[in-house]
Amino acid sequence: MRTKLYVALDTPDIDRARALVAKVRHHVGGIKLGLEFFVANGRHGVRDMAEFGLPIFLDLKLHDIPNTVAKAIQALAGLEPAILTVHAAGGRAMLEDAKAAAPAGTKVVAVTTLTSLDSEDLASIGVDGSPHDQVMRLTDLAMAAGVDGIVCSGAEVGAVHKKWPRGFLVVPGLRLADGVAGDQKRVVTPRAALDAGASILVIGRPITAAVDPDLAARAIEATL
Q1: d(CA 148, CA 138)
Q2: Per-residue confidence (pLDDT) for residue 140, from 0 to 100
Q3: Do residues 193 and 220 touch, judged by C-beta distance below 8 A?
Q4: How far is CA 65 from the centre of its chain?
């Protein structure tokens, strides 16, 4: 059984990305490629990374009018990532069109509230309530729109799992118990997120910035 641990390759350098995957490929269940990687390397880069044989999580966080998002997803034809992200804040019509445009084998998951945001940040953009409140509101929207799941922090995944037991729940921004939070504000450990109902765990710097990425990935895998 493949581990639920995905490594986040948040780098524009494809050679560095390939070198990292070569080191950790036996201890991760998939590869997350974000906007930074995609802008630098495009479709060719995604195909190149797919040669490792691991599922690809294409984390583009698409957010635009429904027609534009649908056409952007159609333009990814041939890549067929295992997972693709859009922003839940784009609204129900956008979410519905995104799911309709995606390949049959691709899970479309809606980003709820970024793990770098707290209540003060939300208030500054006109969103009332806590991050938890916003995540739950957008989870209801994602469920109604028919996408496969959502992205949320480990702080909310337990409540989301109770609301949506069959949802595909992606938890990023994870840190080890003795790790540095960095620019993340709502963090938990990988084990805690998994126990709370996470479908996959996305971890970047604790693995990619480690002196020995393979050892770091194995250590995290051991806790799961």
Answers
A1: 13
A2: 98
A3: no
A4: 21
- 143: tokens are 């469920």
Active site residue 61: yes
Within 8 A by CB and 6+ apart from 196, the residues are: 154, 157, 158, 161, 188
Q: Cα dihedral angle (188, 190, 194, 199), rounded to 10 degrees?
A: 100
Closest CA to 213 of 2, 66, 11: 11
26-51 pLDDT, tens digit each: 999 999 999 999 999 999 999 999 99
Q: Walk along the chain (224 residues) in steps of 10 and give the mean pLDDT of each run.
A: 88 96 95 97 97 97 98 95 97 98 96 88 90 95 98 94 98 73 63 94 93 92 86
pLDDT score recorded for residue 178: 61
CA distance 104 to 164: 21
Q: Of 4, 23, 32, 61, which one is the catalytic site residue?
A: 61
Torsion angle (degrees, nearest 10) of CA 6, 53, 88, 77: 170
Report residue 32 as tokens.
Answer: 């997350």
Q: What is the DSSP string of 199-217?
A: SEEEE-HHHHTSSSHHHHH
What's the token pair of residue 85? 């992200």
